[in-house]
Amino acid sequence: MKLSFSVLSGIIQGIAEFLPISSSGHLSIFQNIFGMSDGSAITAFNVLLHAGTLIAVFVVYWRDIFALIPAFFSLCKKIFQKKFGFRYYTESERLLILMVIATIPLIVIALTGLDDYLEKVNGCLWAIGLILVFNGFVLFVSDRVGKQNISIGQLKPSRAFGVGLCQMCALLPGLSRSGSTITGGLLCGLERESAVKFSFMLSIPAILGACVLELPDLFSGQSAIASSQWGIYLIGAAVAAVVGVLAMKLLQYISRKANFSMFSFYCFAVGAFALIYDLVR
């Protein structure tokens, strides 16, 4: 792999993982048109790119993340004391519960192995194009929902599970994880900024779980990274981390000042490009 390819992939991953335009869809288009023919190498590289964006989440939300550690132990104590009502829990304890509930659909998918079948769409540009167009409609809808304006702490567990179902659907390349979960959060009544924050926090178990499952393959098997390539791969991951922080800050700003229509039209354009390119090549 060339260094330029690694850096460009890191930029794409950092931007598209957090802006609601689908990192998997953009990486698939980029790698299919310009990129690597070795599917196992792509898998290994993408794992490291996702690890880079996970670092970005920790940089931006480190206070909330580290607050979850004592919250876990205090929550266990309260459960042992048979304090099951949400009224007993702190904001961090509630966030932890909601994150666990919203992650259940992803766990089910991982245990059944359905995610492996969904990833096969990566090699089909016309399908990715169609899904990106659908993602544009999802974002278009997100600007027209969300009337209750509740905070994360007021979100009911059943509605958190609904957000998790939206995240599960985003396993399809071209359907943005952040866009789906933000839209799901808005549909469940979260205010826009809270929906963005909950989406970013949900990316922690999602990305971490994917990295842990794929980690052994980075050192052995068909996906093992050659020693001469580690430096180039890690540079791409570092670029994804830096660009990811900037993308998160940008989306936080946009959620306060504007709507997501610009991303909707962008997805329409990229999806149409992928469809046309795949038909004429």
What would the keywords be for this entry?
single chain, 281 residues, mainly alpha, 74% helix
In total, the number of strands is 0
Molecular shape: globular
Sheet bearing the most strands, described?
none
- Rg (C-alpha, Å): 19 Å
Helical content class = over 70%
Structural class: mainly alpha
Mean pLDDT: 86
The percentage of residues in β strands lies in: under 5%
Order of helices and strands: HHHHHHHHHHHH
Q: Specify the number of helices.
A: 12
Terminal CA distance reads 24 Å
Give unreliable regions as ranges. none
Describe, in short, the structure shown.
It contains twelve helices and no strands. With 281 residues, it is mainly α.
Description:
It is a single chain. The radius of gyration is 19 Å and the shape is globular. The protein is built from twelve helices and no strands. The chain has 281 residues and is an all-alpha fold. The mean pLDDT is 86. 74% of the residues lie in helices and 0% in strands.
